[in-house]
Amino acid sequence: MDEKTFLIKMAKSYNITLPSRYVQFITEKEYEKYEENQAVFTGYLSGLYHLHFADELLTDVINLGIAQGIKDIKESWTKEFNTYIPLAYFEHPEVPEPKGFLVWDSSEEMMPVLLFDFEGPKVYAVADSLDQFLQHLPDIHNKEQKSRNASELADRKFEFWKKGDRKNFNY
C-alpha cells in the first residue's frame, strides 16, 4: 500500500484529521529510517524490536490487536482507548505476541507517543511528541550506541499516562 492510500485509510478508519507532522512523517517516508532501526523501549518493555509505521495492519485496530496476540481487544479499545491511534507495531523473533503496540493520543495537539499494553490494559507514556520519540530511538549504525547493551539503553522510566498531568514525565 502506498503512503497516500495508507494515510487516507488511517483517517477514515479512526474518523480523524491526521496531524500535519504525522502526514509529513509518512508521505516523506521518514518512517523508513526508523523501521530499519531496532528500537529500545524503556522501563516496562525493553529490548530490541523492529518497528512498522506504515503497515496496513495499523489501519484496523481490531486486526492489529489480534495480530499482536490480543484476542479480546474490541471491547476495551472502544470503551477506554478510542482517542488513541496506532502509530507502530513492533516485533521480535523471540516475542511472537507482544500484546502491545505504540499509539499516539489524538486528543493532544503535540501527538504524544504511548505504549498500549493489553495486560492492564493501560497506556504508558513514551514521549511528549513524535519528534521526541524519534529523537530518542537508538541509531544502530552509531558505534557508541551499538556497544551498549539493551538494558543500559532501556534505563529510562515509563510513567503511567495521565491526561494533562506531565509534571513527573521525564524521558
List the total number of helices. 8
Overall domain count: 1
Question: What is the mean predicted local confidence, pLDDT?
Answer: 76
The end-to-end span amounts to: 33 Å
Structural class by secondary-structure content: alpha+beta
Order of helices and strands: HHHEEHHEEEEHHHE
Give the spatial strand order of the biggest sheet: 1-2-3-4-5-6-7
The proportion of strand residues reads: 15-25%
Give a verbal description of the structure.
The protein has 171 residues and is of the alpha+beta class. It has one domain. The protein is built from eight helices and seven strands, in the order H-H-H-E-E-H-H-E-E-E-E-H-H-H-E. A seven-stranded antiparallel sheet has the order 1-2-3-4-5-6-7. Strand 1 and strand 2 form a beta hairpin.
Main features:
171 residues; alpha+beta; 7-stranded antiparallel beta sheet; 8 helices; 33% helix; disordered C terminus
What does the secondary structure layout of this molecule look like, with pairings?
Elements: H1 3-14, H2 20-27, H3 31-36, E1 38-40, E2 48-52, H4 61-67, H5 73-80, E3 84-91, E4 100-105, E5 113-117, E6 122-127, H6 130-135, H7 143-147, H8 150-153, E7 159-160
Antiparallel strand pairs: 1-2, 2-3, 3-4, 4-5, 5-6, 6-7
